[in-house]
Amino acid sequence: MRVAGAFVFALVAHLAAAQIADVDWWKTTTFYQVYPRSFKDTTADGIGDLKGILQKLDHFVDIGIGGVWLSPVFKSPMKDFGYDVSDFRDIDPIFGTMADFENLAKGCKERGLKLVLDFVPNHSSDEHVWFNKSIYKEEPYTDYYTWLDPKGLNESGSPIPPNNWLSVFGGSAWEYNEVREQFYLHQFVAGQPDLNYRNPAVVEEMNDILRFWMDKGADGFRLDAIPHLLEDQSFPDEPLSNDPEFTSDQWGYLSHIYTTDLPELYDVIYGFRDVVDQKQAELGRQMVMMVEAYTSLENTMKYYGSGDRKGAHFPFNFEFVTNVKNETTAAELKQIIDRWQNSLPDGAWSNWVIGNHDRTRVASRFGRDFGLAAVIMGQLLPGSAITYNGEEINMEDTWISWKDTVDPQGCQAGPEYYQKFSRDPVRTPFQWDNSTYAGFTIPDSSKPWLPVNENYKELNLAEQKEMANSPYHIYKKLTALRKERAAVQRGSLTTKTVGDNIFAFTRQVDTEGEKAVLVVVNVDDAEVTADVTSTVPSLRAGEQLTYHVGTLESPYDADEMIAPSSVKVPARGALVFLYTNSATSIAATSLLLLVSTFLALFN
């Protein structure tokens, strides 16, 4: 019987392991967005580079990252800091060389890390060879971009733009070219002419670029600014939004019904996925394709695919970025999360984005405490987790003066409005330690391209490593849970509210030996003592919760046993508990009985 018992245990353990092993790497991992200019400078020019990322690869391993995603490092005049690409197949000298990229890809592979690149398909730089040839109508480049004749001439004899379309960065979306004597479309800065996806040759060019970087070692892509890929070809004026927050030259002044979210764009995305899947089969390694789209929930879900056409592995879930506010109630938080989960197509994989290089840092948006609570939720809700560099130490926005502002979106807004639009505050150098420039570069180097936050003396990675309780240690415990617990990787989700201020959710699987996970979040500005018994109906009778990790003001110690009837949740904080699911025990017991009966037949 001792042998039979060992066999049964091994069988159950094997079945559980097999289930986890079948999950693709991108589903269970945490993706870490590196903003290269601000990560680590090794050349003393004040700008981060590829060698700096290579130098810090062990940091990703240390904090439990699986996928390293780089914001653009392609050749660029840097009018939009890399999102204006002048050569999609080369590395900008600011960041290094192609050899540096290949060394980085090799270093990632050696550490079991996946390397994901930003792909910027909507536009190129106006310094790209394609655009220069298009200006002179050199085939096949004549129609690589969107060109239109002037609407007429104004009183001073200057050409009038074809319509009222506005750039995301402000001002007209049309720029006149004296040589071609036509306007070209640019939905972002004038140095970023929109590519023409009505032209099959453009589509195939971009497909080839995807293939090029996968051959170079990339394990996938994040597709940038996708809703802007196609425009209405009748080029009508867009209607007013009637939003009083915006002036007539700001993007929000119009409703963008002719320049974003056109139905045809999804086929372009499905085509990109076909290319990724074909190359995946050729190279024999799993790829991933993620999509950035600030759009409606209904439109977001279309990016997953349609019928037998596959789309993105997942479009970014920006619910925490766009819809969760400081005043969000527990009931509203539950509604936001449930709405996303319930909108997912059958078989679709979820994800949670807490912050990025375009939006206020989570610690500044929500405050330090609830910022950490958001990170906890983002790591433990179903799906892939996305981390923006610095979130693992709870970095905050840096105030940037008008004089030091370099972001084109801020510069174009002018000194009166720049703070509303500038993305510089979220892009400042990573705070490695308390040395000069926070360890981002050497002390006698050039001044960093953006100022280092003045709080770096106290808020930095090295300091947090030495502390017993810090955002760094909390983050590591969360990513470890993702790696170690099937409940987090593939467990079911149940959400509940307790009273007015407590939101809670559980993750669980019916696997012997697997603990279920309970996350309790307090949205109130005061500590709440809550009875969370109703959130864990499957908890074994009389059993307590085991505290695992929580925000900085947690009153509990690791592995402390807590009665579910009286849980103290700190103000704007979150707590994570493990517990034994009685349903799991029943299922496991049934399996053991079945196997025991099978073995008895042969005794």
Estimate what percentage of residues fall within beta strands: 15-25%
- Ends apart, CA distance between termini: 10 Å
- What is the overall silhouette? globular
Let me know the largest β-sheet: 8 strands, parallel
Mean of residue pLDDT?
93
Radius of gyration: 26 Å
- Class inferred from helices and paired strands: alpha/beta
Helix content: 25-40%
What is the fourth-level CATH superfamily of the domain at 26-120 and 203-228 and 265-466? Glycosidases
Poorly predicted parts: 1-23, 584-603
Report the CATH architecture of the domain at 26-120 and 203-228 and 265-466: Alpha-Beta Barrel
CATH class type of the domain at 26-120 and 203-228 and 265-466 = Alpha Beta
Q: What is the CATH third-level topology name of the domain at 26-120 and 203-228 and 265-466? A: TIM Barrel
User: Looking across the biggest beta sheet, what order are the strands in?
Assistant: 15-12-11-5-2-1-17-16
Q: Helical stretch count?
A: 18
Tell me the total number of β-strands: 25
Label this structure with key terms:
single chain; 603 residues; alpha/beta; TIM Barrel; Immunoglobulin-like; 8-stranded parallel beta sheet; 6-stranded antiparallel beta sheet; 25 strands; 16% strand; disordered C terminus
